[in-house]
Amino acid sequence: MARDHARIRLDIWADEDWRDLPALPQWLYLYLLTAPTLNFCGVTDWRPARIAALAADLTAGDVEYAAGWLEVGEFVVIDRDTEEALIRSWVKHDGILTSPNMAKALAKSHG
Fold first, then answer.
1. Which of 22, 46, 65, 70 could cross-link to 76 by cystine, CB 3.0-4.6 Å?
2. Distance (Å, rounded) from C-alpha 74 to C-alpha 1?
3. Which residue has the higher pLDDT, 21 or 4?
4. Cα(57)–Cα(34) distance, integer angstroms
5. 79 has which bridge partners?
6. Which among 33, 44, 25, 30 is positioned nearest to 86, based on CA atoms?
7. Which residues of 39-58 are buried (b: 16+ CB within 10 A; e: fewer)?
């Protein structure tokens, strides 16, 4: 079953670590949360040039710059060799484990 929506917690705006981020890293994080390739484990494709193409004024370098902020703040873990990014707290905050069927989807995706 493919994902058709993303759950974004409203209390993200009360998080001081989040609010300390510049706008571009915040945009990138919200993109990663809503990326069509995000799986039930919180892993998505990491292709900076493709991500940059989603906004008129971005370059792959801009995306990498923003990613640096997210990595330092431990919002994401990026494996550039496999071209994958993990949203570190996605499973915790998405509520996926509250549904038995979604927990099964997570386990299947992990495999």
1. 70
2. 29
3. 21
4. 20
5. 84
6. 44
7. bbbbbbbbebeebbeeeeeb
CB burial class (10 A; 0-12, 13-18, 19+) of residue 95? exposed
Q: In this structure, are residues 43 and 54 in contact, taking their beta carbons and an 8 Å threshold? A: no
Answer yes or no: is pLDDT of 94 > 80. no
What are the tokens at 86? 């993990």
Question: pLDDT digits over 18-34, tens only?
Answer: 999 999 999 999 999 99
Question: Is 35:83 a contact under the CB 8 Å cutoff?
Answer: no
47, two tokens: 């292709």
Q: Rounded CA gap, 90 and 92, in Å?
A: 5
